[in-house]
Amino acid sequence: MSVRPILKMGDPRLLRKSMPVREFGTPELKALLDDMFETMTAADGAGLAAPQIGVPLKVVIFGFENNRDLPETHAIPKTVLINPVIRPVGDMVEEAWEGCLSVPGMRGVVPRWSKVHYEGFDQNGQHISREATGFHARVVQHELDHLEGILYPMRMRDLSLFGFIEAMDTVEPEE
Ligand code: NI
Description:
By secondary structure, the protein is α+β, with helices and mostly antiparallel strands. The protein has helices spanning 27-42, 134-147, and strands at 47-49, 59-64, 76-88, 93-98, 106-113, 115-121, 127-133, 162-164. Nickel (II) ion binds next to helix 2.
């Protein structure tokens, strides 16, 4: 296990489309996930996608049991999601602040579907199927975007709501 360097916006590897995982339960997949969890924890993040450590595979992790920076309502089950598929439920969109470990020190307001259904597989190939709303739905949409080479600033509608955290007064941290 090791903490891996997180690629930053501007690195072309963050703009690639990721490939599906073909085999589950392998030592290589386990090693990748161990590194991803260690890297996410070290960076105090709420989610991480494999491309952020330079691995172009459809693998994301997200969630946390206890994160003192986020309110209780933001709790998300610790999840490994592989080869995910997502669709909106309804047509409601909401805007909220997001950050990204690949865009360090910055925040921006991003529109996301309010409610989504997502599915995929865990590290052993067990099927996962869930509906999510609010912060949970937002984190999943953010992480899955990484698999398509999309960073949150590319989703923004109003760049006046984008900037350095240290320069902002009252921004609620997300993701
Ligand atoms: Ni991100």
